[in-house]
Specification:
It is built from eight helices and 15 strands. The chain is of the alpha/beta class. It has one domain: 3-Layer(aba) Sandwich (Rossmann fold), CATH 3.40.50.150. The termini are far apart.
């Protein structure tokens, strides 16, 4: 689909001006960042926002960044009608209107070779799943995004529950959007052990296993089982099995460090810039530091920005001690 021109304020009509806050850099700890890490410096026009935690509305903060400067966006925005005590909550019917001005800025600052990973989940309204997530995906495509892939986060440690008309939600969407079809992807960085299935499945190969077996339904896909003989590592599926975790238990989001870390390894290289525009307690920034990437974390909550700063500072100190040892 061809990229459509975005009207600058097409989605921001009639929004309360109180939602727009002056961005503030959070530096209460007064510690030198990034200490003595061996990362290449960012460009001059990015210095103000590189390796920083910013308290502000991402829609406004990102307007101060140059075009096409971010390599990867990984984020989990407030879901509809959730995190009300922290972020006020967004009604499901208003969610797309609320999100799209921000997506406009994400599109502008993301490099053509970059990726945007959006963790989001539908909610139940009046006994049925609301369609705001599907509506959001369609609206993003109209804005010019390519819906390149969808990953599933399977939560390994969800506790059981009982509801009259449904079962436990045990997974969440991880939508992969890009600006172009030619984006960077380093698949070898996330390979996994081949698994026990290979011991029995690859022991006795049929003649079909030794040649490319094309799909019977004409999809164009096929497989050649013998390609995997003798291999210890293989490419993963698009279902990611990870337990939930929460650094700060008063924060309702349960984004594990391993989740953004997986996408950071898949879509970036050392020294690249990773953005989380709904940064919360800083999990994406911590993952970026661990993988030797630059970061920018933005959040409207000053409380969580302080928590995020404490976390990234501890991570920097840990890495600095490692480099000195």
């Amino acid at each position: 689909m061809e990229n459509q021109e975005c009207t600058p304020n097409a989605y921001s009509q009639g929004r309360p001006s109180a939602l727009i806050r002056e961005p503030k850099l959070i530096d209460q700890l007064n510690l030198p960042l990034p200490l003595e890490l061996s990362l290449p410096p960012s460009s001059d026009d990015l210095q103000t926002f590189t390796d920083k935690i910013v308290n502000g509305n991402c829609e406004e903060v990102l307007k101060q960044l140059p075009d096409q400067c971010v390599d990867l966006i990984v984020t989990s925005p407030p879901y509809a009608d959730q995190r009300k005590s922290t972020y006020g909550g967004i009604a499901p019917d208003a969610y797309v209107q609320w999100f799209m001005p921000k997506a406009e800025q994400f599109f502008r600052v993301l490099k053509p070779t970059g990726s945007f990973i959006l963790n989001i989940k539908e909610r139940v309204v009046d006994g049925e799943r609301h369609t705001y997530v599907m509506e959001l995906v369609l609206e993003m495509r109209r804005q010019g995004w390519l819906w390149t892939e969808e990953y599933i986060w399977f939560k390994k440690n969800s506790h059981p529950g009982k509801w009259p008309n449904r079962f436990r939600d045990n997974w969440e969407h991880l939508f992969h959007f890009t600006r172009t079809k030619k984006f960077r992807m380093f698949q070898d960085n996330v390979m996994v052990p081949v698994g026990d299935w290979a011991q029995s499945r690859l022991r006795n190969l049929s003649e079909t296993d030794k040649r490319r077996d094309n799909s019977r339904v004409g999809s164009g896909f096929g497989k050649k089982i013998s390609n995997w003989v003798g291999r210890e590592m293989v490419y993963p599926s698009n279902v990611i099995h990870m337990a939930t975790e929460c650094y700060n238990r008063s924060h309702s989001a349960t984004f594990p460090v391993a989740l953004p870390e997986w996408f950071i390894r898949l879509f970036t290289e050392e020294g690249d810039l990773v953005l989380d525009p709904f940064n919360g307690s800083g999990t994406t920034c911590v993952a970026a530091i661990q993988q030797n990437r630059h970061f920018l974390g933005i959040d409207t909550s000053a409380e969580y920005c302080k928590i995020a700063l404490e976390r990234v500072t501890k991570e920097y100190i840990k890495k600095n001690e490692f480099f000195k040892s």
